[in-house]
Design goal:
The complex is a heterodimer.
Chain A lengths: L3 E4 L2 E5 L4 E7 L7 E6 L6 E6 L5 E4 L2 E6 L4 E6 L8 E7 L7 E2 L3 E6 L1
Parallel strand pairs in A: 2-11
Antiparallel strand pairs in A: 1-3, 3-8, 4-5, 4-9, 6-7, 7-8, 9-10, 9-11
Chain B lengths: L3 E4 L2 E4 L4 E8 L5 E7 L6 E7 L2 E5 L6 E7 L2 E7 L7 E8 L9 E2 L3 E5 L1
Parallel strand pairs in B: 2-11
Antiparallel strand pairs in B: 1-3, 3-8, 4-5, 4-9, 5-6, 7-8, 9-10, 9-11
């Protein structure tokens, strides 16, 4: 059973555009939602994370939007740059339990 | 660099070989993880160790045998592998094993089974 569903599988965006990646979860006990970014030849690295007590968290050009009632959260990358080309994983976890990753989105920003 | 190193970076082995993957973390973390990354299952958790004790085995075949001699080192012993085991094997560490703790990943070992 896939507990965190991520879409799209791949995404192509023009430089300067907005990249949007969506995730949905099933377990209402989840209370921590991180996003990890993975460049080719590297392991994933934490990009940004949110807890469900806020609806939005912004760090530079990266924003997580969170909709608790819909059990959905999304990553928005503003002014997308070629250097943002990577694979992005959403994830979810609950207290004292392991993290569950989505299947990833391969993002390509056209120069 | 993330503070997590993995060796070797690339490995080609036959189905009858025995090899080992090594992971070392220099972050003072207590938890260490093995993940398998492939096109079909991008981040598949295999094993979790917390304070050297195995706390999670995600139904991994016995041809994969982990070893955690201390909190800084993690090994994955491989024997009698199948071609479908070809993948990127990622090691990670975190301060605790809760999913709320940021995981720091190594660069991975690209394994090819022939």
């Amino acid at each position: 059973q896939q507990q965190v569903k991520q879409s799209p599988q791949s995404l192509i965006v023009q430089k300067g555009g907005i990249s949007i990646i969506n995730c949905a979860y099933e377990n209402t006990a989840f209370d921590y939602f991180p996003w990890y970014q993975q460049f080719p030849g590297k392991g994933p690295a934490l990009l940004i994370a949110i807890r469900p007590d806020v609806s939005e968290k912004k760090e530079g050009r990266f924003t997580i939007s969170f909709n608790k009632s819909a059990k959905q959260f999304s990553l928005h990358i503003m002014d997308s740059q070629p250097g943002d080309s990577a694979t992005y994983f959403c994830a979810a976890s609950k207290r004292d339990d392991k993290i569950i990753f989505g299947k990833g989105t391969r993002l390509h920003i056209l120069p | 660099e993330t503070g997590v190193t993995q060796t070797p970076r690339h490995l080609v082995m036959g189905m009858t070989n025995k090899k080992s993957l090594k992971c070392e973390q220099h972050l003072g973390h207590n938890a260490m993880y093995w993940y398998k990354q492939s096109a079909k299952k991008p981040l598949e958790l295999m094993f979790v160790y917390n304070f050297k004790e195995q706390t999670e085995n995600n139904s991994v075949p016995s041809r994969f045998s982990p070893e955690c001699p201390n909190s800084s080192h993690l090994f994955l012993h491989l024997h009698t592998l199948q071609p479908e085991d070809s993948a990127l094997y990622l090691c990670a560490s975190s301060q605790g094993s809760s999913g709320r703790n940021e995981q720091y990943f190594g660069p991975g070992t690209r394994l090819t089974v022939t």
